[in-house]
Amino acid sequence: MSMNTPKQTSHLKREILVRLIKAYLGENFEEDTRKIPYDMRPKGSEVPFRCCIHKERAILRDRVIAGLGLSIEEAEDDQLLSELAKKSLERTEPEENPLTVLHTACQGCVPSRIYVTDLCQGCVARPCESACKFGAIKVENGKSVIDPSKCKNCGMCAQVCPYQAIAKIIVPCENACPVGAIAKDENGLAQIDFEKCISCGKCVHACPFGAVHKKSQIIDILKAIKEGKKVIAMPAPAIMGQLPCTPKQLKTAILKLGFSDVIEVAEGADITTRNEAAEFVERMEKGDKFMTTSCCAGYNELVEKHIPELKPFRSETKTPAYYTAEMVKKETPDAVTVFFSPCVAKRREAMQNPNIDYVLSFEELGAWFIALNVQVAECDETEFRKESSAQARNFAVTAGVANAVNHLLDDDKKATPYIVDGINKQSIRDLKKFAKNGVCELGNLIEVMACPGGCLGGTNTINSYKPAVKQLTNYVNESPDLEK
Questions:
Q1: How far apart are CA 81 and CA 62, in angstroms?
Q2: What would the pLDDT profile of 64-115 be if each residue is shown by its tens digit?
Q3: Are 262 and 388 in contact (CB under 8 A)?
Q4: d(CA 351, CA 343)
Q5: Domains of the chain
Q6: Contacts of 133 (CB under 8 A, 6+ apart)
């Protein structure tokens, strides 16, 4: 799992996906789906997380709804899972928004605030008073007191307290969201504002109750395979660091699931590299001060919704997924294309690209292997149709895109990269400053990745970051350089 994935919630989601896949491949999908919460929490079983078995089953029901690719908010309380399973089979395209919230699981956390604990000593120095620029804190009766009407939650008082007596209480999902897209509704429960949401997925992994959930498209993909369509897998470069097998074994394993072919998105990354390198040279010769990359779907959503002033500086080159899907559709017009993704944001990109039909997360792929008992490490090796470059396969890590571009440039035209390793509130402020000033003093090629560590740190990954980097690096080192 990714470096930020809570284990227990991840295991629950995986078990539900495994059961859904087995139900679909069984004889009675709708009825077997209805029984999932009861099979997972049978009468008399231990209740590991909630107050009672009925609460556990209610939350499992909602997780199944998300696994079916449906919005939990729109499902009626009295609808049977069998009815919703049937609805998932009847749809012709995935639902628009990739995230949904389980209000049954949401704890309705207390609002974020700065709080003075009993550790406060009312010291003579009173650094907390001096640090507060808003006059929100003072000492009364030998203890610091915060005026909530003046407090801005900046946390400066907590930083300077010598006893660490001042704590900042956060709402995990709200604190993780870099754009303020998730907040409490009128009932005090989490609600996503999709007009602001950039689908980075940070809220999914921040919530310790697993209340924010991705909507799966796995039923749609299983249905396309069952109907005998040519379903072609397009795995992102980050997948090569996820499973205990060689890339060629992984291709064999994916074919065992029923896919017609497996085409590395690294093929598209080679095209992206060439186009972005040429565009960078053209822009610099024209007098532009900097250019940002355009490969990260989360970053592209950020620009569209929150920093439109950056659009003139963003590369017009398309993503590796775009070029790969374009190639596949030209070669096989009737193909159903499935992008294997390390992140949630690629689902939004796919919805805006008619050449990408569905998105399968690495988590969902792992569950699929478990459901069919495919042992990836025991598979034979199958050759890829083309040997992609080391630079393309290294797109999965931070600075991979910038390094690939520089690989193609002559010494006198090389870029000075500035790397944004994860979108957060500070990096957003920095990007806005660059756009406002029309210059980035730290470099002229800004690579932006929504996830720290790049795609290998994506919110849909299943391997820990360090071993994933090691595994991917071995593959990159075995690959040829992109020809200049």
A1: 9
A2: 999 999 999 999 989 999 999 999 999 999 998 999 999 999 988 888 889 9
A3: no
A4: 14
A5: 7-107+179-216 (no CATH), 113-169 (3.30.70.20), 228-477 (3.40.50)
A6: 154, 156
